[in-house]
Amino acid sequence: MNLFYLRYFVTLAHVQHYTKAAAQLCISQPNLSHAIAQLEQELGVPLFEKSGRNTTLTRFGEEFLDCAEHTLSTLDAGMESIRRSARGEGLIRLGLLRTLGVEFVPRLASAFLKAHPDLDLQFTFHTGVTQSLLDGLSKRKYDLVFCSQPPDRLNFTAVPVQKQDLVLIVPKGHPLASRHTVDLAETATYPQIFFDKSSGIRAVVDQMFSDINTEPKIAYETEEDQVIAGLTAQGFGIAVVPYMDLLLKLDLKILQINTPACERNLFMVNDSRIFLPPCVQHFRQFVLDSTVLPGQELI
What we know:
The chain is an alpha/beta fold. It contains nine helices and twelve strands. The longest helix has 28 residues, at 59-86.
């Protein structure tokens, strides 16, 4: 069924006059008459009948008008939505580590909105550990995720956007609590609280111990760094964690790690095999322009 003919039909149904409807549609009256005749032939029933100088709908025409208007309304709404997306408007779905939701990601999102006040933009924010975020990206639940470095086997595109310092935390009264710095090898004899293997930082900490050929004494494992900090404060063990302001509020001692290297990169990750909506492309570029670490390249 010809889409233009549907629009012609709806216009004629409201105007109820061929000449006036044709003028409103900017077509000739014979073209309008031909279009209506084609519709009636396709449907097998008359849609209009003469009523004096005007043209009115038959009962079949009234029934078809409801269908045509609903169809055109749905189509027009869909077309307008796509046009808005093409203009760079729409929804940006972000997945992020909880620590990045305190300041880093909200600051970027806020700055992006302020840079584009003329666009209708929305964000959704979902937190989780690295593995769950990458799973969500694979399932297309998120457009971009901010997390630890993804495994090469996933073939995601990742770029480092922030560095985190790793520190050792110990409860007050611990034998190491009198120190300001420590070598990681000195912690081997003490029970430690480790990140769960689903957390991206686990691989970083594992590698640190591997670099010094030391096997840590793992007493507990959990996913969230805030939980690790709380357990450490209550004497369940010591832990290597990213530095965060929360640590200053707990009954802990924070030690700098001398050796090995104790820095962690956090990444913005997307699946380059999937088309990103223009608004997501623009936000991703905004993040790259704002945060990419010097000397770092796409992975």
